[in-house]
Structures are given as C-alpha cells and as structure tokens.
Design goal:
Its main location: cytoplasm. Belongs to the class-I aminoacyl-tRNA synthetase family. It is found in: Cytoplasm. Monomer. The structure is a single chain. By secondary structure, the chain is α/β, with parallel strands linked by helices. It folds into three domains: about 1-270, Rossmann fold (3-Layer(aba) Sandwich), CATH 3.40.50.620; about 285-410, no CATH class; about 420-465. About 45% of the residues lie in helices and about 15% in strands. The protein has 15 helices and 16 strands. Strands 5-6-7-9-8 form a five-stranded antiparallel β-sheet, with helices on one face. Strands 4-3-10-11 form a four-stranded parallel β-sheet, with helices on both faces. The longest helix has 23 residues, at about 320-345. About 40% of the residues are buried. The mean pLDDT is about 90. Bound molecules: adenosine monophosphate and zinc ion. Adenosine monophosphate binds near residues 240, 244, 273 and 282.
C-alpha cells in the first residue's frame, strides 16, 4: 500500500513495525459544538484508509481521542476556552456540553457507517498520563515554567518545524501580529503543556492537581500521551485534517520525540478541507451544515458518504447542495441496480472468460486503493463492473466485496415496502383511469404524491415508488 506522507512529501510504501498490525492514531473532535460535514469528511477518509488496509490484509489498531477538555479558540495558546464558551452559550456545565456533543459526534459517525475505533479515549480520563509525560519533559530539560503555564521550549528541540517545513524565523514573523498574553513566554511558538488556574484562568471550571497547584492541560499533550499509552512510542500512521499540520502535529512531534528520543510517526496522513464558498467549513466561522441539515433537504447520510467518495482525500472539496443532490441521484441509481441484481438469484457457471473479467475488476479495484487510496477511481471500477456483462449474481457478490471498503451499506439495501393505504389508492386510480374518469384519477395521483410516493403507469398496471 502506497500512501502520501506529509512528512516526506512523497507517496511511499507503508511498512508497519509489526505487520500485519498497523497502529493508527486519529485526532478526534473537540466536543464543544456540533459535528459538521467538514469534520465528517476527514473521519470518512480515515475510515476509507482503515477499510482499504483491512481489505489488503492488515490488522488495524485504531485509536481516536475525544478532546473534552476545551483547548483555546485558536490553535495557539491564546483565546478563550472553547468548552467554557460553548457551555456559556448553551447554559449548561462544561461536562454536560462535552457529553452532549460527544454523543452527537458518535451518532454522526454511525450514520455515515464509519467503523468504530478500537479505543475512544477521552482527554479528561487521561490527565495523569499527561502529567507523567510533562514531568518527563521537565526532567529532560525541555520545559520552563511561568506563573501562568508550563511551556515546551522549542529552542531545545532542534527539529522543530520539520513536518510543515516552516522555519522558526518564519514562525516568529507570523506570530508578531498575535497578542501575547503571557509576557514571560520566551518564544511565540513555545506552547503550553499545562496551564495553571491563575490570572485569566482563575475561574476555569475543569481543573486538576499538578503538584501543589491546580490547572488543566494544553491541547497538544493529550494526543502524545494517549497515542503512546495505547499504541506505543512510534505509530505507523497518524491522521488528521491539514489544519493540524503547522501547529498541533508539529507540537505533538516535538513533545513526543523529546520525551522518547524515538520517531513519533512513520506516515502522516492528512485530509484536505471540505470548503463552502471557498472557505473552510468550520465551527468558528459558523458556515457549517450537519447531517441533520442535509436530511431535511432529502440527502441521506449514505448519499453524503457517496459524495465524499467522489473526491480524493488530498483534493479540496467544495460543498454545494447541487452536488449533494447529484450524489443522491447517483446513489439511488446504484441502489436500484444493486437491488435488481439481488433479485436475480440464478447462479450460472462462469465461463473462463467471465472469471477473468471478475479478476480483472478486482485487480483494478485493489490497485486503485494501493495507489494512495484512489477512492474515486475505485468507485469508477465498481460502476464499470456493474455495467459489464458478467452474470448478475457475481456482480452482486463483487459489489458487496468492494463495499467492504466503500462502506455504502449495499448488503443492507432492501426493497421498500409500499404501505397498503398507498396501494389501495393506486388501485382506485387505475379503476378511475380504466373508466376514463380522468379528474378523479388525477386527484388520486395528487393524493399519492402528497403522501410521498410517485406512480408510473404501465400498459395495464402501475409502479409505485417512494419519492
Ligand atoms: P476539531 O474538532 O476542530 O479539532 O476537528 C476535528 C477534525 O476534523 C480534525 O482532524 C480537523 O482537521 C478536521 N476538520 C475540521 N474542519 C474540517 C473541514 N472543513 N474539512 C476537513 N476536515 C476538517
Ligand atoms: Zn491530535
């Protein structure tokens, strides 16, 4: 399997430390607001990678964290606490807010048929692991303390910036415009490992003991502490959105490698943004839609997943309702086709020619996956296979096999049962039509439409479909 590695800037062969196991850490959500379609694009891409690796024979050990301790509104150390801000807005406690949005997040993943991670650790359940790691960094001389916080001293980590390729001087340049609240911070890019509940944080609700003082962790330390705890000191693949490259992941590398002296990650897998009108869909910009918003407009979670499948994970994707509508039609066509195949259960003996064709489609599908997870290409192979002349039952079987990666739930497709009431209305309409009572027939058709079904006439009967 070849994957683009943000770190090497190359498409490279995955070579796990203990094959067939692949250790896979994904940065999870900060649960202070709704899960939106942007997050879900990244989590769907992670799911596709995981499913593809599984099809290729690997055993994935997947950990995803829940950031339920509110990191500050920017990626840097400034701003307000996101969870406290969210709690204030909702009139709830920080714990209630985190719990509510965690549940909503998990529900959204299920709706999209995203396979659960093996562990879903919460930051608040791992404060002691973070403290232990911070103490280790203190002992090794990578930190300094101010009244407000314990900082990681980036000048002590010579490789700082190696993931994004930023030079420290550029970081200084970029940060000059920022307001520095802690005047005792030595370098603008130094980042907090731990904040003390003093000064601007004196009323902070979430707080834990650290020695004789109280405080709360900085954001980045949780991912290092939890990934090491569950997956060991070096991880095969670490995933997240591209927004995490310059700060969060850079900081994760610095603190992890400083603590262990070992490489933190072999392959960095980053998903490009889901944009809307040219801007990143985000909580802070308030330009986001949720799964529920789409459902109200007739776009199902499966159709959304289909929409995601159409763009390669490294390409930015622009969200429009028009595109979501087109994905819905394509998904419905696929569903009809698969259901028609499911009905045709007559197994025929395959000629060597057709067997060869089956193998060819399988090979094309796998090589699309192996080539940096080319899911749009894999989806195209699925369509060519479905339109080919191989026997229906074999097409059906192969479609289900491909769907182990695509995750559209093809095996669960069922013929819609039409309610008796609608069938009765349709029968009455047919009678009216046969009696040439066209006004009555039109009224009945209207009633059927209003109840959410469409009716098509055939020469002597009708076909009812759910709209
Ligand atoms: P957050 O809760 O902001 O930390 O985001 C959780 C995950 O979703 C991270 O991996 C982000 O990079 C990713 N993410 C957030 N917004 C978008 C977006 N518009 N498009 C793609 N991924 C996103
Ligand atoms: Zn992280």
């Amino acid at each position: 399997m070849k994957i683009f590695n943000t770190f090497s800037r190359n498409i490279q062969e995955l070579s796990p430390q203990n094959p067939p196991v692949v250790t896979f850490y994904a940065c999870g959500p900060t649960v202070y607001d709704h899960t939106h379609l942007g997050h879900l694009r990244t989590f769907t891409n992670n799911d596709l990678l995981k499913r593809a690796l599984t099809m290729l024979g690997y055993k994935i050990h997947h950990v995803m964290n829940i950031t339920d301790v509110g990191h500050l509104t920017g990626d840097t150390d400034e701003g307000e606490d996101k969870l406290e801000k969210g709690a204030l807005k909702a009139g709830k406690t920080v714990w209630e807010v985190a719990d509510y949005y965690t549940k909503q997040f998990i529900f959204s993943l299920k709706e999209l048929n995203i396979i659960e991670s093996d562990e879903l650790p919460k930051a608040t359940d791992h404060i002691q692991d973070m403290i232990t790691l911070i103490k280790k960094l203190e002992e090794k001389g990578f930190t300094y303390k101010t009244e407000e916080a314990i900082y990681f001293d980036i000048s002590k980590f010579t490789d700082y910036g190696k993931l994004s390729g930023q030079k420290i001087e550029d970081k200084i340049q970029k940060s000059r415009d920022e307001v520095h609240i802690d005047s005792n911070k030595k370098h603008p890019a130094d980042f907090a490992l731990w904040f003390f509940t003093v000064g601007r944080f004196k009323d902070h609700v979430m707080r834990w003991d650290f020695g004789s003082a109280q405080g709360f962790p900085g954001w980045h330390i949780e991912c290092s502490a939890m990934s090491m705890k569950y997956l060991g000191e070096t991880i095969d693949i670490h995933a997240g959105g591209i927004d995490h490259i310059p700060v969060h992941h850079e900081n994760e590398i610095a603190q992890s490698e400083a603590a262990t002296g070992k490489p933190f990650v072999s392959i960095w897998f980053h998903s490009a943004f889901l944009n809307i009108e040219g801007q990143k869909m985000s909580k802070s910009l308030g330009n986001f839609y949720r799964i529920e918003d789409l459902q109200e407009k007739g776009v199902s979670p499966q159709a959304l997943r289909y929409l995601y499948l159409q763009t390669h994970y490294r390409q930015p994707m622009n969200f429009t309702f028009e595109a979501a509508g087109a994905a819905t039609s394509a998904f419905n066509n696929l569903k009809e086709m698969v259901l028609a195949l499911k009905k045709q259960t007559q197994r025929t003996v395959l000629s060597t020619d057709k067997l060869g064709q089956l193998d060819e489609y399988r090979t094309q599908f796998l090589s699309a996956l192996q080539n940096d997870l080319q899911i749009p290409q894999a989806l195209a192979v699925m369509w060519s296979m479905l339109k080919s002349n191989i026997p229906s039952e074999d097409k059906y079987d192969l479609a289900l096999e491909f769907d182990q990666v695509l995750g559209l739930g093809l095996a669960t497709f069922e013929e819609e049962t039409i309610p008796e009431e609608i069938v009765e209305l349709a029968k009455k309409r047919l009678e009216a039509r046969n009696e040439k009572e066209f006004e009555k027939s039109d009224e009945l058709k209207k009633e059927i439409l209003e109840k959410g079904y469409s009716i098509e006439d055939t020469s002597d009967s009708f076909i009812i479909k759910k709209k």
